[in-house]
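This part of the workshop introduces the protein records we will be handling. An example says more than a description, so a record of this kind follows:
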Amino acid sequence: MSVVGLRGLIMRLDKRVEALLPQRIRSVWNHPAGPKTIFFWAPSFKWALVIAGIADVVRPPERLSVYQSSALAATGCIWSRYSFVIIPVNYNLFSVNIFVAATGFFQLSRIYAYRKSLKELPPAKDETADSEEAGKTPAA
């Protein structure tokens, strides 16, 4: 089947589906960022990053990556801004990136709190005894 024939088939199928839709949904169907465009599907699949970030809430903070969480927070902020600059304005892209940024910042806060709690803990008694003995010279 040629590209022209495939395109005609898709256009005919689109017209049939559109005829079956109620008027309110038809405006979403034909929107410049609607389900017939990449502007709809790319952000929709990006929700998997949000789900992965939420799943990491049960992961111990010592196993979280600062670089990964920082990257998620930064890209979420950048793409949230970008979603209002592009034409058409893409609210689906905005919403998913707000959640990506939020999960990134939340994981960073967990890492920060964990590392701060490690600094506040006094050293164990065995560790202080070993360090004192290490500093002494052997008796002759």
Remarks:
- Residues 16 and 102 are 41 Å apart (CA to CA).
- The two ends are 94 Å apart (CA to CA).
